[in-house]
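Q&A log
Question type: sequence-to-structure
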Amino acid sequence: MLPDPRAGSAPEPGPDAAATPVLSVVIPVRNEAPNIAPLVAEIEAALAAIPHEIVYVDDGSTDATPEALRAARAAGAPLRALRHQASCGQSAAIVTGVKAARGRWIATLDGDGQNDPADIPRLLARAEAEAQEGRRTLIAGHRVNRKDSGVKRYTSRIANGVRAWLLRDATPDTGCGLKVFPRDLFLDLPKFDHMHRYLPALVLRQGGAVVSEPVNHRPRTRGASNYGTLDRLLVGIFDLIGVAWLQRRGRRPVIERDEGP
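Response status: OK
Response body:
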């Protein structure tokens, strides 16, 4: 199970808090103060035509991230901020953000600026088209031209290959932080540490669908990564075993309506 995030503050409403957003952009961050203002500006430009909110979850930052979030909100962004008193990990931050979100649709972004918010409207349109066909679908970004270090690309290639072989989740890039999905679909999933790396497999287990879409990827230009490569490798084998176990143990009942009195 995920640790108790013990959020240190309630969601802080932005200027348009009374309006219900269509889309909530959930961004987990830890020590990303220099990236807050540029990313918020990009999100606002990309989503100008879509009623939205931005939900940041500060996962126990020790830098000026809280101040940067307050400044972005004061500048007029429809931004809400929650804070974990201590770092509980990226999955815990995403869960906190989705639970607090008010939109029917969720878009997740990494807080380092490497995901391009300009891709969100296209992924949202695909998700809405899937819903029109009666499917609850996770739209997963696929970084076809990654701008990470050689070590990250190499380890991700191995991890993606092993994961795809074991879990058969039909997703080439589960590590991409840019995803769009229905909020209620996410809330139906089992919650555990590192779950965000296995969302496609968990969605398929829940009876949903997964579609991959190519997205832009950019080099990090500010700050340093706070969720490293080595820690992912060390826990990866245990995560894979656990998710494979969940896949094999889960059953989805077929509900028959009782038409009687």
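Response note: Residues 13-18 have pLDDT under 50 and may be disordered.
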